[in-house]
Amino acid sequence: MGQRLALARDHGIDGIVAGFFWCRGKRVFEQALNQGILGSAEGSTMDYCLMWANRLPRHVLPVKRRDLPVIVGSRLVSTDEEDFLALVEHLAQEHFTRPNYLRVQGRCYLSIYDSTHFVRELGWEGTRRAIESARLWLKNQGLPDLYLVAIDPAPEIAGDVRQLGFDGVTHYVHLPEWKGPQQQDYWECATRRAGQWAAIARMADLPYAPSIATGWDASARAADFGPERPDKYPWSPVVTGEHPELFHQAVRRGISFVEANEGEDGLLMIASLNEWSEGHYLEPDERFGYGWLEALRGAL
Hints:
Layout: H1 2-10, E1 15-23, E2 26-28, H2 30-37, E3 47-52, H3 81-96, E4 103-104, E5 107-112, H4 115-140, E6 146-151, H5 155-158, H6 161-164, E7 168-170, E8 183-185, H7 186-194, H8 197-204, E9 208-209, E10 211-213, E11 238-240, H9 244-261, E12 269-271, E13 274-275, E14 280-281, H10 291-299
C-alpha cells in the first residue's frame, strides 16, 4: 500500500479519504486502514481523513438477483444520538489526534456517506442534538472540533444541512445520471454535473467540494445477463468515452470552481484511487498506463 500512496502523492494527491465502517461499535475492513494505509511508512505521514460508510458492504458479489432493491434495508446502518457520540469518541481516540489527520480550518474532517439516511434515522432535531453533543464532547476533551461533511444529501434535506450542523457538502461519485440511459458519454456527464455545483452550494449555504471521477462502470460487481442487462445498479448506468485528457479538463474545471468560491480552504475530491470494481480509479491500467495519474498531475 505504501507504494500506491507514494505514487498518488507523487502525482499531486494531498490526502486520502478512507472509508470507515461502523455499526453500533462493530467495525469491518479496518485492516486496510490500520495496516495498509497507516501501517505503511508513506501512510504514516500522508494526510488522511475518514468517511463514515454508514451502509454495510454487500455480503455476496457478483450481484445475481435482479429482483432485489438496489439498497437492501439490512445494509443501512442503524444509529442514534448515543451511537453517533460513541463513533466520534472512538475516532477521536484512534485518529483525530494523529498529526497527519486532515484538518480543515483547524477542524477534523469527517464525512458521512449516506447523509440522507443519517438524518432520516435520527430526525431533524435528533441529528442536530447528536452533532452538538459530539462537538461539546470534543471541546470538553480539549480536542479540535469536527469539520462535518454531508455526502449527496437528498433534496428534502439539502437546504437544511447547515442548520443541522454540517460544515460542508460533497459527493462520492458525481458523474452519471443514475436513472438515465444505460450508456452515457463521459464528457456530457462531467459537463452536466459541473453545471450543478453552484446550485448545490447555494442550496446548502455551505462550501461545496466537487468530486471528479475518472469514469463509472460497476457492472464488474454484477452477474452477466448479456443483452438483457437490468436497468439498475450495478448493471447500469455505464459511462463510456472516458479518457485521461477529458479527465484532465474536468479536474481543471473543478480547480477553477474551488479557487473562485472557496479559496485556500477549498477541497477538490477525486474518485478514486483504486475503486476498480466501479470503474473509477487513478492507478495504472492496461489501457492508459499511468495516464490517469499523469493527467491529474498535469492539471494541478
